[in-house]
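worker-03 picked up job from queue 'complexes'. Input manifest follows; two sequence lines, order preserved.
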Amino acid sequence: MSDIYLNEKFIGTVKDPIGFVNNVKTERRNGKIPKELNIYYDDKSDEVYIDTSKGRARRPLIIVENGVSKLTSEIKQGLEEGKITWGDLIERNIVEYLDAAEEENSYVALNEEELTKEHTHLEIIPSAILGITTALVPYANYSQTPRLNRGSKTQKQAIGIYTSNYLVRMDTDVNILHYPQTPLVRSYMHDISDYDKHPAGQNIVIALMSYEGYNMQDSIIINKASIERGLARSTFFRPYSSEELRYSGGLIDEIGVPDKDVKGYKSEHSYRNLEEDGIVSPEMRVEEEDVVIGKTSPPRFLGELEEFSIAANIRRESSSVVKHGERGVVDMITLSENEEGNKLVQVRIRDQRIPEVGDKFASRHGQKGVIGAIVPETDLPFTASGVIPDIIFSPHSIPSRMTISHLIEILAGKVGSLSGRYINGTAFESESEEDLRKELLSLGFRDDGTEKMYNGITGEEFKVTIFVGNIYYLKLRHMVANKLHARASGRIQLLTRQPIEGRSKGGGLRLGEMEKDCFVAHGASLLLKERFDSDKTILHICESCGMLAVVDSHKNKRFCPKCGNNVDISAVELSYAFKLLLDELKAMCVYPSLKLKSKYD
Amino acid sequence: MIEEFRGKINGMLLDEFEKEANAMKLTKAQREKALKLLEKRYKEYKINPGEAIGVITAESFGEPGTQMTLNIFHFAGVSELNVTLGLPRLIEIFDARKEVSTPIMEVYLKKPYNTDIKAVKKVAAMIKETKLRELAHEFLINIIKKQIEVVLNKGNMRNLGITEKFLFDALAVKLKKVKIRKASNGNVVLKPDLEEVSLKDVYKLKEKAKETFIKGIEGISQVLPIKQGNEFVILTTGSNLKDTLKLEQVDETRTISNSLFEIASILGIEAAREAIVYEAKKVITEQGLDVDTRHILFISDLMTATGRVKGVTRSGITGEKESVLARATFETPLKHITGAALAGEEDLLNSVVENVLLNQPVPLGTGLPGLVASMKKNE
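worker-03 finished. Artifact:
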């Protein structure tokens, strides 16, 4: 007897579970049971699960009976002529939807040719086994799965045009590519997902070779002239918003240019871009720390101030400031109200991002890298026909990663650009490499895609032929401009006197425990000390009790609070963090006594 | 001539050199040249004073450790035998865990037994432990008589070579305070030997009786003879060196366990030291990594230097550091600070961590040597 569960609830038992499941499936196809129902028999626990709940992922598959696909050639023809719709296919039991559980009970064939009697279903197209972004990878069946995962992951990070009304939107963290193109080597998914309406890359000329050692370890060489022509140029938008909040006691924030007597007033220079209404004017250039929306808020602790302070009406400065390390041009300003009826000001800053050394690029095959050098066109290698590559890619990135699809895309892209057509690169159903090679040969090129190239600096011919072709390249949204960070001195934490953390606050870069180990392993003792003395302090220690002594430099007096005046007091240099530890020990009633010794005894 | 170099070069190296030189039949001039080269190289490879070997050793294990695959189990050549390998096993070794997650023995056999598969299988059967459960069809509880009736599986008993007499003798030894007798239908009847027998006692006895050890070596749940070169080796799941080494067929010079504490208690601390090296090396080579043997030797020396196996943990060698601050920086700072406060401990700031904490030069490398200058006294 097998238990039956309907939507995870026990509803009864059945003697012949397999027969029962088959009956339910037949009745579902006969239309007596809703098509939204899925049934699954688990032979390990001998339980039948019926699911009709919402939120399950279901996918369509072609039904197979006795080893024959129900999608016959007549139906295919009907589909092509537009006589049959998708709805008809489901109605006529040619296609049915399975959920993850029912899939476990079925045997799905990838291609029609491999159908046997045991098969229950057939994939609509073989690449339906892939997800949306993975199906966008051309020639995906030629690469390893981990590379496809990375390839689809990088596609999600690519800069493109995510929507065509971006100019009237106030989204955060927006990047727009200036001249997006649709890929030459495509898959069915590009058509299905309307990729042409929101493309995220550009077709470029790529050469697989090394160049002066600047494309080591996955970095790429990029053609300066290509950049100047607008390759991989993008715009970054960042909105700043501010609202006039209402506080208790009828007080309200005020958007406007703050008065000079406001608490926390920045320099006059910071407010120079503001108009009379306290908002920057459009198309104004702004730098980091510049005010874009001037605002003042009422004082925080009103009651106390009124009692003790004469300046009861001192307001606080609470303007919106351009983020640390950013700059741009004021793009759009909106004035509106939010749900509570408060005045809301939004300012959008735009900044053009021209590719620079350190920006990240990737192909669609998990081959990502940063720009290692931007080289003038005159110094780059060229082919016999005078073609100069946009990007030079290191051949060392290929063998260990085995991304054959990357190489085939270059070849296919070359054929596509020369013959002026799109190449079908859908996984499992792509145009064959052999055909591409033949076509390339007929176009007057070597069939392996390589070409004779000449050194751009000396003009000498290279001894080997170089693999050149076209590939769809993506600019990823990780750009150095958003990441570059260094500091010499700056703000410190109040408690430990060590530098604060974080790029946006101008903090320090931590030399961590493992980095410390590295210094120790090299025996660089004094260098280590120097690195760690960001919080060094001079402590005065009473030599008789070993506790901190008091040094009053105004009165030129030194004494120990415990032992009095007639004791030796010595100054030692220690880290402030250690002084803090000593204080904490004292707070928990542990007496840490420092015993001093002269370094030179 | 070799004697001239005694004191300059390690004695063991010299002995080895002598052996090799004799084997290669070197002339006197050649020997002298070779010895001079050896001396030069020996000096070059000696570790300099102030070299941070501890940190270098730790890094030499730590960095490859990050590359190790994290799958815990690996099949040691055969599908039935799982062994913990990789990072979890390495941690197990260096932490010197008392309980090994997958105890294993490699039992080597003496000359006449190790080539004949039949003889090997016989020894394997002797080693494998047999419990009463394996000899019984079922355990019945007679509620009225408050006793257990064990229905014996005669076939299994014959296969394992256990006679009824042997079984009764073994039960008599293992089950104390239990009346054992044979019923007329051949069943074994067990009854708790108590004045008042409750049903709970009977149930407890049933569970105990199932796990009663009858024959073989306790703790060895699986045996697997495999061919290694031209002899057979028995791999076991579970480890019991003490009893295994007592068997006359077993080659006690080569048989090993992967339990460090068992080796230390039976074969001594030197054997445990070797075992640490062997086991650590096994993990590292299995992962396709390369760590210099001297790092492993250094760790194993440290772990066994006190005569007992101690792990690199706060209760082991790290917890034995002299400096209070160094111990407090590692783990459980409160314990060490309160302990030091109660005992009035003094920290001499002789080591690395405490000096980093105080922002002082660490006594290593460039921070180690002091400069002494003799000044002319003013008259």
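worker-03 released lock.
The first strand of chain B starts at residue 73 and ends at 75.
The mean pLDDT of chain B is 85.
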